Each structure stands twice: as C-alpha cells, then as structure tokens.
Amino acid sequence: MRSFRVKWKSPANIALVKYWGKNGHQLPANASLSMTLSEAFATTEVTFSPLKNEGGPVVTFTFENNTNEIFQQRIERYLQYLKENEMPFLQHYRLDIQSQNSFPHSAGIASSAAFMSSLALCLCSVEEQLYEGIGYSFFERASYIARLGSGSAARSVYGGYVSWGRSKHVPHSSDEYASPVNKTVHPSFMHYVDTILIVSEKPKAVSSSAGHRLMNDHPFQLARYRQAALHHEELLRCLLCEDRQRFVEIVENEALQLHALMMTSHPSYILMEPATLFVIQQIRQFRSETGIPVCFTLDAGPNIHVLYAKDESVAVENFINNQIIPSIAQPVRVMYDRLGNGPEQLFFEFDK
Ligand code: PMV
C-alpha cells in the first residue's frame, strides 16, 4: 500500500442563477449558473497513510492550524459516505487534512464550495492514481464527489462560467455534476469583475442545509423552480449574445428572489442589513445615471457582490470608494475579485 501527499487550490464561486432547494442526495431542484472566482480560494493538503487494518478512513482535520470539532464531524460523515458508496479505498487510509482560505473566514463568502471542491480534487487525484483507466473524466468525477459534500462545490472545479443541473440548453448536463459553459460565452464576459462589499461579518443566521429544507413546503416552490429554469436558459443566452441589459435584470432578480424566498419561508429569515439595501439602491441609481450596466448579486447573507466588466473598473471603483463607502456608517471591507480560471493542483507525491 502506498502513501500519498496531495494539495489542491480551489476557488469559491458566486451563483448568478441560484441553487435553492434540493431533492434526494444533494440533487438540485433547478439548474444553477455561477461564475468561478479567482482570489477567494481554499488550499487543502491531504496526506494519505496506509492503515494496518480496514478501519479507515481515520481523519484528522485542521483549518488554518486549528482543530474544528463541528467541521471534523462533517468531514468524517462525508468520507464515511464516500467509503461506503463511492471510494472503498478510503477504508485502508488515515487522512490528515489541512486547509486554509485566502479570504477571511468571517467574510461571508461561501467557503464550503472552495473547501469541499479542494478536498474532492485531492480524493480524486488519489483515486485516479490507484485505479488507472477508471474511465471517469477527472473533473467530472471531482465535481460529482464535491457535490456530495456541498452542492455549490460541484461548480467550483471549473473556471469561468459553470452550469450545474439538468438543462436541455447545456449539452451533457446533469444533476450529478457541473459543466463549464465558457465556449458559449461572449468574450466581453470573460473579463468580469466581482467586488465584494462586506457590510457585516456576523456568522450566517441559517445554514445552507436548513435553507434548502425551507423550500420543501414553501408556498412559492413551484413558481420558483419554473422561474429558475427560465432564468438559467435566458442567462445562457445573455452570456452568448452579450445582452448586458437583460443579464443585469436576471442576476439582480435572482439575488432578490433568494432573499424573498427566505423572508417568506417558515421560519422566516431576513438576511439583508440596512446597508445591503442602501448599496443596492445606490448601484441602481448609478446605473441609471451613467448607463454603465453594473449590477449586484447576493449570497445567503448581507454582503454585496458588485459585478461589472473590467473596462468599467475605473468608473465603478471610483463610485464604490468615493460614494458608497463613505455613506455607510459602519466599516466596510472591500474584496476585489474577478472571474477565475478554476482549481490548480499544487503537488502530488507518492512513494513508489
Ligand atoms: O452548496 P450549498 O448547499 O452551501 O448551497 C448554496 C446555496 C447558495 O449559495 C445560496 C446559492 C448557490 O447556488 O450557490
């Protein structure tokens, strides 16, 4: 039995069409579409050491050199599931997992997508080495394995624009793994910027799993899934035809719909802060005054992702720094990100 040491860097992503609601084992209720980020990523190193018996996987986990009991248990459950259903080789190994983020943990950026995709990539690298010619496409398999840990992580294994979920508008699409759609994206969207305004660093009020569950008996469930499918189809068309105006309408509508669903679920959650609404209104006003098609999106929290093309950076960043930030009472942390190229393997070593 060989030992392995593998390390991957994998990015976070921000959904433009949101995944909200799931079926079965981590299968999405609707197809989603995201942009992979560049500067917000997780770096995860896993050492696989053979065990003398088949009692694995034995797991240790540290995040930024600290143990984390809750995350450790979640990873153990995930790896146990993979051992029983997907990756029997895990029974022979002890896994020492060390991970860190390039961004502050409290920044409200979906860190689980970055972490789960980096872990899945490490697992799949070893699987590929152990079972040469296994017949899977590596990234498709990594996306599938990442999805089992966190749905949105399925999208983080690819760079650029990524779709996840069955759609007749994306060839070979599946609920089980994501696929990149960059070949049908107009070049002007390939230099997109995401400037993230962190208006609150409070921990999330509702976990994603609890959030997805809220959709099970939500009164707007069917309307939401129908509209998500239309938005997914239409956003693909906007990316292809460079329809910036409709892009803005759909992306903002998706963000507000996610929050509207949470506000009107039972129990109900209001995850926006007054500053979130203030920034949204400022962006809309700036857009109508200047004609620059800058827009916002939100994750399941109060922080605002401001999206625009790279050649609009000077005007938009002046507006952010000179108009928005000075008008907000509390301190705002700004993170400059952009469309990224996807994960990168940092090393892979094994004893022969
Ligand atoms: O991957 P999860 O289970 O953390 O769900 C992610 C849900 C949203 O971030 C709100 C939307 C999305 O599509 O990423």
Q: What's the short version?
A:
The protein has 352 residues and is α+β, with helices and mostly antiparallel strands. It has 2 domains: 4-183, Ribosomal Protein S5, domain 2 (2-Layer Sandwich), CATH 3.30.230.10; 184-338, Alpha-Beta Plaits, CATH 3.30.70.890. It is built from 8 helices and 14 strands.
Shape summary:
globular
Number of helical regions = 8
Task: State the domain count.
Answer: 2
**Strand elements, count:** 14
- Would you state the CATH class of the largest domain? Alpha Beta
Rounded to the nearest angstrom, the distance between the terminal CA atoms is 9 Å
Report the sheet with the most strands, covering strand number, pairing sense and barrel closure.
8 strands, mixed
Helix percent band: 25-40%
Named CATH topology of the largest domain: Ribosomal Protein S5, domain 2
Bound molecules: (3R)-3-hydroxy-3-methyl-5-(phosphonooxy)pentanoic acid
The share of residues in extended strands comes to 25-35%
| Series of secondary-structure elements, N-terminal to C-terminal | EEEEEEHEHHEEEHHHHEEHEE
CATH architecture of the largest domain: 2-Layer Sandwich
Q: Write down the Rg.
A: 20 Å
Low-confidence stretches: none
Structural class: alpha+beta
Quaternary state of this entry equals single chain
- Output mean pLDDT: 95
